[in-house]
Amino acid sequence: MDWSAFFRSTVEPVLAYQPGLREEQIREIAQTDAIYKLSSNESPLPPFPSALAAMSEQLLTLNEYPDGSAHELTQLLAWHYEVAPEQIMLGNGSNELLDLIAETCLQAGDNVVFGWPSFVVYQSAAMLGGAEFRQIPLCPDGAYDLDALLAAIDAHTKIVFICTPNNPTGNVVSHAGLERFLDAVPAHVLVVIDAAYEEFIDEEEAPDAAKPLVYFDGQRPYVVLKTFSKMYALAGIRCGFGLAPAILVEMVHKVREPFNVNTIAQAAARASLEDVAERAYRRALNTKGRSRLQSCFAALGLKYHPSQANFVWVEVPDATATFDELLRRGIIVRPFAGANGLRVTVGDAAGVSATIAAFEDIFGQGRG
Ligand SMILES: Cc1ncc(COP(=O)(O)O)c(C=O)c1O
């Protein structure tokens, strides 16, 4: 039986997304009961208390379909970000929006440009859209190299993805850098800024970090994508959103599934967005944990990138061996094939302490 004829030729070469290890997968390897899953940049805390209450209120309505237009959430996001409701797109996670934009815009002959290493979905979205993709190496400090991105653009470039803070390095692009990029980028290119981790940026530590929303005018081909999965601790319920020109939102509506954001997600997102105090508290907690991790890496002589996200990229002499050593100590981090480092999510205070203890054990005096 030749199955290949059944499938679109663009599907076969795509690598399915590999999620991080789950706790139960390492119970036998770990020599401790205290296991910390620091492999998927999830929040170590549960959803916001206001979101938990809002979600439970919706349970009795689940016999009905969600509001397919997500009217209330759309209005709230428009008010919050001072844009028109027609400029808001919603997705089953921002991952779905990356795919939807690709599906809406790309066709054979197009190319897509993005930094590398970065979020792997830019590659799969490009491939599924039948487009060529160009991975542009990051700057040595781990940030997107915006000049190199510009140099890679040609007449067939349809989309440029910029991830800031970048996953997996945590670096941000600067305000001035993004401004220069947007002045120079040709008008036929859709610039998609993936700001999934923006809420973790600490203004005091990174005063010149780009604020992508400043450049959103609803006219130029420019999109900012955001998510409720990270700062808002709602990864399991799937809700992402984008600010985009109304014409692009209109096109995405034609492509998306009619009820792509479920009722509980809509309620949780609304409640979370309004909880300014909880957001500030969690940002401070993350900054503290991140700085503890970075101090530990510095003290151990391990190079790390200056992160503004909820994870830190740390270089280690042997990433595979260190990954295994950490697993034995109950710490699940994220390895990247062929890379000389590991991505470590910032846990809660106990998770950070356990991570530090494990790294000290592995790389402390006389070890490593
Ligand atoms: C840079 C980046 N963008 C987008 C996403 C997708 O997030 P979600 O689909 O949960 O909104 C992730 C998830 O890890 C990410 O790291």
How would you describe the overall organization of this protein?
The protein has 368 residues and is an alpha/beta fold. It has two domains: 20-46 and 277-363, Aspartate Aminotransferase, domain 1 (Alpha-Beta Complex); 49-274, Type I PLP-dependent aspartate aminotransferase-like (Major domain) (Aspartate Aminotransferase, domain 2, 3-Layer(aba) Sandwich), CATH 3.40.640. The chain is 36% helix and 15% strand. It is built from twelve helices and twelve strands. The strands form three sheets. The chain has a seven-stranded mixed β-sheet with strand order 2-8-7-6-5-3-4, with helices on both faces. Strand 11 and strand 12 form a beta hairpin. Helix 10 packs parallel to helix 12 (349-363). The longest helix has 24 residues, at 276-299. The chain is globular, with a radius of gyration of 21 Å. The protein starts with 22 loop residues before the first helix and ends in a 5-residue tail after the last helix. The mean pLDDT is 96. The site of pyridoxal-5'-phosphate has 13 residues, from helix 4.
How many beta-strand elements? Answer: 12
CATH hierarchy, class of the largest domain: Alpha Beta
Counting helices, strands and paired strands, the structural category is: alpha/beta
Order of helices and strands: HEHHEHEHEHEHEEEHHHEHEEEH
Shape, per Cα inertia axes: globular
Residue share in helix: 25-40%
Number of domains: 2
Radius of gyration, in Å, reads 21 Å
The span between the termini is 52 Å
Oligomer: single chain
Low-confidence stretches: none
The CATH architecture category of the largest domain equals: 3-Layer(aba) Sandwich
Spatial strand sequence of the major β-sheet: 2-8-7-6-5-3-4
Query: What do we call the CATH homologous superfamily of the largest domain?
Result: Type I PLP-dependent aspartate aminotransferase-like (Major domain)
